[in-house]
């Protein structure tokens, strides 16, 4: 849990489970693991949440990125900030992405101007399979104004079996 950007991009990082709550506006979370990492619960923090900041998870070696149900990745820009929600990027060097938790990006709601866009979601499983639950990108709500635009959801498998499984919905609301 922190206020400022948390960047741990070193390829020798090696934890079993990662979780984060970044509360500063538009502050990001970046983590690279030597092999596999699960989005889970650590010291009472569940999943990864930012206040509109980007989330980036990668693996340096052979290994998977996983999450259990309820272990969500959420980026929500602060109301009336005009900020676009943070993008979510996950990629494996050689492994699967298997997310039972949801990925949610929501742009800033606004009661005086047009609301902001949701953040783009890019998931890439190199030499592995990709399975996801619900992924939602949505623009913020506009009160008396236009709502924000949704963002793209890009799901990619490269090399390996190239299997893609969607176990939920992929709404882009804007």
What does this structure look like?
The chain is mainly beta. It contains no helices and 20 strands. A six-stranded parallel β-sheet has the order 1-4-9-12-15-18, with no helix packed on it. Strand 6 (41-42) and strand 7 form a beta hairpin. The two termini are 30 Å apart.
Strand content: 35-45%
Low-confidence stretches: none
The largest β sheet comes out as: 6 strands, parallel
Q: What would the principal axes of the Cα set say about the shape?
A: globular
Helix fraction? under 10%
Q: Which structural class do you get from the secondary structure elements? A: mainly beta
Gyration radius, rounded: 16 Å
Looking at this protein, list some descriptive labels.
mainly beta; 20 strands; six-stranded parallel β-sheet; globular; 174 residues
